[in-house]
Design goal:
Number of helices: 12
Helix content: 25-40%
CATH superfamily of one domain: FAD/NAD(P)-binding domain
Shape: globular
Bound molecules: flavin-adenine dinucleotide
CATH architecture of one domain: 3-Layer(bba) Sandwich
Largest sheet: 8 strands, mixed
CATH class of one domain: Alpha Beta
Structural class: alpha/beta
Number of strands: 19
Strand content: 25-35%
Strand order of the largest sheet: 5-4-13-14-15-12-17-16
Length: 396
Amino acid sequence: MQKKKLGGPVIVAGGGIGGTATAVALAQAGIEVLILEQASELREAGIGIQMPPNAFKVFDRLGLVVAMLKKAACPDDLVFMDALSGEQIIRIPVDDEFLADFKYPYALMHRGDLLEVLAQACRESDRIAIRTSSRVTGFRQEGGRVTVRTEDGAYHEGAALVGSDGLWSTMRRELVGADRPRTENYIIFRGVVPADQMPELEFANAVVMWGGPELNFSHYPMRSGSYFALGASVKSALALDQGVSNLGVADGARELRERFGVVCPAIARLLDKIDVDRMWTLHDREPIKHWSQGNVTLLGDAAHPTFNYMAQGACMALEDAVCLADCVTQADSYEQAFKAYQQARYLRTARVQLTSRMYGELYHAKGVQADLRNALLSRTTAAQARQHLSWLFSGI
Ligand SMILES: Cc1cc2nc3c(=O)[nH]c(=O)nc-3n(C[C@H](O)[C@H](O)[C@H](O)COP(=O)(O)OP(=O)(O)OC[C@H]3O[C@@H](n4cnc5c(N)ncnc54)[C@H](O)[C@@H]3O)c2cc1C
């Protein structure tokens, strides 16, 4: 017998990648959704994002593969290089064998393009309403319904509430507690550079990650190869207990030059392509097992933020979205659905959080640790590397 559809609307607090994907997945399951987003429009910063095959498995579910690929670049290789010696340590071709193993492409995108495809899918659905300039400040559960308060003094009533309000989640404070995100004092500077302003690269159509002592540098193409996304990350006394900081060009340039003074010429010549006036402090949180309470739950970075070293934070938010929608279609109540959803997700997301920390240690190794990393990784075949990544890239 077919399950009776749960009532709506589901209120989604936060219209980022996780929130919009959740809205689309729920709407496709026949549920009305109201997105409350604090910003005046749905938008993402103009920088790059990697979308490995597990993200595309989700896009396939949502019917968005073609739209996503229109503006993506697809790399030929994933490469890890030693930032001091300039040596290639391991190269994983994104070839027919890779595609045969994981079934979906590995794509590199502009964040704005990615969010726009999701936002457009929301706008095209008559089950999704979007209210921007609506910052959620609190909620109350009563009689099986949820009332959500926004900063402008409005109240919104729904059948359930999903907090996809990111790393600094307001909703998490109420559901889980006031623990702060943790940092290992790494900061990242980024850059977006037109392809014709880039010097010649050994691996141009590739995701290239350079690891060095307490630093890493990455570059990859995006927007069909017309731009490159660059990232320069380093352990720094400038790391702050907050997200984005405007440093001022002089301080940023000094930090970058001083801390990257040791790197090989292939990276050194890319440093002036980095935007030095802004930096992000990198955060994660300890994995948790419970992030749902009654008809209210968390999703994406609000539930399980991770370091960027595996390029998986947004992928986890996307996977959350389809998992949550599946649980909603299979349960008799939102409370039951949200419990099933957190149970289905917590080990996989914890594995990403904890493995990302480990990847960070590998990237940032120095001395004998770095020698050992290079010796072991350079002996690893592409087939072994794919096997190692299979739990992740095969998706849910
Ligand atoms: C340097 C770096 C590189 C990364 N690279 C990758 C990558 O290559 N691949 C990948 O998969 N992931 C990557 N990530 C992780 C990824 O960016 C995040 O995991 C992802 O953006 C999380 O999505 P989200 O929707 O959960 O949260 P967010 O993207 O933070 O969205 C939250 C939304 O909620 C809104 N909001 C916040 N508070 C409120 C409120 N109170 N009321 C209403 N709205 C609110 C915000 O304005 C925002 O729109 C990277 C992260 C970093 C820092």
